[in-house]
Amino acid sequence: MLKLKKVQILGFKSFCDRTELKFPGEGIAAVVGPNGCGKSNISDAISWVLGEQSAKSLRGVHMADVIFAGTRDRKPTGMAEVSLTLVDPQVYEGPVTGEPEIDVQNELEEDDWDEAGIRTAAADATEAHLAEVQPGPLDGSEQLEEQAQDGVAADASSGDAPSEIAADAEPGPQAEASTAEPSITPENAEATGVTEPDAQASVAAPNAVVLKIRRRKFKPMQFSEGEIVVTRRLFRTGESEYLLNGKLCRLRDIQDIFMGTGLGPESYAIIEQGRIGQILSSKPHDRRAIIEEAAGITKFKTKKRLAEARLEQARINLARINDIFEEVTRQMNSLKRQAAKAERYARLRDEMREKLRVVLASKFAQMGQEEESLQGGLAAIAEEIQSRNETVSAHEAEHSERTQRGYAIENEIARNSQSLNALALEKERATGRRASNEERCAELEARTAAAEAELERAQTQLIALVAELETNRQFAESAAAEVAAAQHEWQSRQQ
């Protein structure tokens, strides 16, 4: 019987920083707190680390909802991690039970409590752990290094954990495929145990698939005998991994370990609110599954089902082999005829090669005689080529001299052409200046005529204005005389 020792939670729902819950005593452990403080998240974390695949059972919509989503003062984390430590009291060397680790201090100095510093340190530790375990791409140098090293087989039964692991069992959901579950064949899987996902694994199927996974070096961890540590991680990128005593494993390996012990996402060890009523109102077949789990026969029924599946697969393979054997038997007569034809072909080919050697030897002698006659003809042709080369050299020298004279004449023609072009350009410029001057003279004459006409109009207007000024002056003088007479008359009347 295994005993729960401690639970470590990091980035799971409301637990943004690493939180460790220890269970040192015996009996019942109660988690007390107000509504919304995260009590149910502890049971959800235990169910999740034991392999729960339903986000709805964890009170979420998607599996990524279990990762800490952040608050106003804290950004979201990139990973959720839960570690469950179990011990076997009969084998475990350390203390299984003991006094609760409670340290009560009534008086604390004011300077000792720095909440902001503690939160900052916890956030930094969380980020550092996330950067350490976050899987990344495999670069070239690391790939060469990994090819030079041998794959390390991880023993899933470290400590006193059960050693029977159904390596040929069907893999977990693809949502948790970051562990790669590299089952090659049932024989290889049973021989090597749980292999790390940093090796290139091929699946034994009609369509073989090669998985290339990044190798990550995990820190060596020391575990006591009889101690089992199960860890599950989920990254925001969708990658997930399971660890058993610090070594990567498959979900099936963890399920095999806890099969028959009552621990598991669908077992009777974890009963949430409303579960008892659901069990009582469920069908007899569903209640039988819980009773069988409590009796410890579920593990054997699962092994029986897997063995039957392997037997069925073996029957299918045997039927395919029989079909192939029958097909090959039917093709044997055709293959015999083809073999006889092949033997006859080989015999005729050897005979043809012997006759071909005789023909080639006579032809080779004939070609030797033709070569001697051709050598004499080639010597005569070479002398004729030499004489013609000398004639061609003389013609090339004469051609070079005439070419130089042609270049000199072309240069002189080019200079004359440039002089003519310069004279033509100067002529065009002079013609342009003359035309511009003529246009300017015509414009000035037009302006002079317009100015003279304007002057005449101004003189005429001046004469009219002078006459009007004289008329206005005479009117002003008569008005002044009338005003003076009126003033004189007014003065006389007053007297």
Explain this structure.
The chain is α+β, with helices and mostly antiparallel strands and 495 residues long. The protein has a domain at 3-96 and 116-265: P-loop containing nucleotide triphosphate hydrolases (Rossmann fold), CATH 3.40.50.300. It is built from eight helices and ten strands. It has helices at residues 39-49, 115-133, 140-148, 186-192, 251-258, 275-281, 284-295, 298-494; strands spanning 3-10, 19-22, 79-87, 153-154, 194-195, 201-202, 210-211, 227-235, 240-244, 247-249. It has a six-stranded antiparallel beta sheet with strand order 2-1-3-8-9-10. The chain has a two-stranded antiparallel ribbon with strand order 4-5. Strand 8 (227-235) and strand 9 (240-244) form a beta hairpin. The longest helix has 197 residues, at 298-494. The protein starts with a strand and ends with a helix.
At CATH level 3, the topology of the domain at 3-96 and 116-265 is Rossmann fold
Order of helices and strands: EEHEHHEHEEEEEEHHHH
Average per-residue pLDDT, rounded, comes to 77
In terms of per-residue confidence, which ranges show pLDDT below 50 for 5 or more consecutive residues?
138-215
Question: Strand sequence of the main sheet, in spatial order?
Answer: 2-1-3-8-9-10
Major beta-sheet overview: 6 strands, antiparallel
How many β-strand runs? Answer: 10
CATH superfamily of the domain at 3-96 and 116-265: P-loop containing nucleotide triphosphate hydrolases
Main features:
495 residues, alpha+beta, Rossmann fold, six-stranded antiparallel beta sheet, two-stranded antiparallel sheet, 8 helices, 9% strand
